[in-house]
Design goal:
17 strands
Length: 249
């Protein structure tokens, strides 16, 4: 097994189990104890894991329990988000029926959608709906509970209304992307809506800049293999073994 393949496998095991011992890894990988320890040190330096006595655990700093407000999110990784947004906007065709999830990257997408686009859109984002309306786009807004921090319509009412639609494409955000935990968000009511949108879409895209990989939040709304991931940087190889990943320039 090649060096990078071995480290990818170690990372996958730790993400799936949460913790693993050196002796377990030597047996699984058919590698020496010194080789495994060296790999763990390198992964620990990258911040992927925590090296502990006799093994390693998942980096708990990778857990997200609270949602930031819209202003704070816009300030983070804005250049990367715009690159992802531009690529995703170019995937929309005139006859598409699109679900656009609330979120900063999807909000940036609207900047790159042509004013004369004839596609129809459904969104749970209040800011998204207003922005699309100003561009003259055909947009529908879900009904339900308004979440103040993200200006998103969430909850079971919104999720139920989604089941009336059949989308050609859905573009969604995630707070975390993890092999073991899947696509996650801190909010149960928001997870209901995301899951419903993916279930009712022919193809789903998760828009996730590189900072989202390896992170986990409170509620899973889908597994990694259920959507194409659009990102700005090549992730660990183990992710590419699970689903289609497009890295934008």
């Amino acid at each position: 097994m090649l060096n990078q393949e071995r480290k990818d496998k170690i990372l996958q095991i730790i993400q799936e189990r949460g913790a693993v011992s050196v002796s377990e890894l030597t047996g699984i990988l058919d590698a020496s104890e010194s080789t495994v320890r060296r790999d763990l040190i390198e992964l620990s330096k990258k911040g992927n894991i925590n090296k502990v006595h006799g093994g390693a655990t998942l980096n708990k700093q990778q857990f997200i329990s609270q949602e930031e407000n819209v202003s704070a999110k816009k300030a983070e990784h804005s250049d990367e988000k715009r690159k992802i947004a531009k690529y995703c906007a170019a995937q929309i065709q005139g006859d598409d029926f699109v679900y656009l999830d609330a979120g900063t990257t999807t909000l940036y997408m609207i900047d790159y959608i042509d004013d004369g686009c004839t596609a129809s859109f459904v969104t749970n984002g209040i800011s998204h709906a207003k922005k699309m309306c100003r561009k003259g786009l055909n947009v529908y807004v879900l009904g339900g509970k308004l979440k103040q921090t993200t200006e998103a319509i969430v909850g079971l009412m919104a999720a139920r209304s989604i089941h009336n639609f059949n989308f050609t494409k859905a573009f969604l955000g995630a707070n975390g992307v993890s092999l073991s935990s899947g696509f996650t968000t801190p909010d149960t009511e928001e997870a209901f809506v995301k899951a419903a949108a993916m279930e009712n879409s022919f193809v789903s895209y998760i828009l996730a800049d590189a900072s989202k990989f390896g992170k986990t939040s409170s509620v899973r709304f889908a597994t990694v293999d259920t959507a194409c991931i659009i990102t700005d940087k090549e992730p660990e190889k183990v992710y590419k073994n699970k689903t289609v990943i497009k890295v934008v320039d």
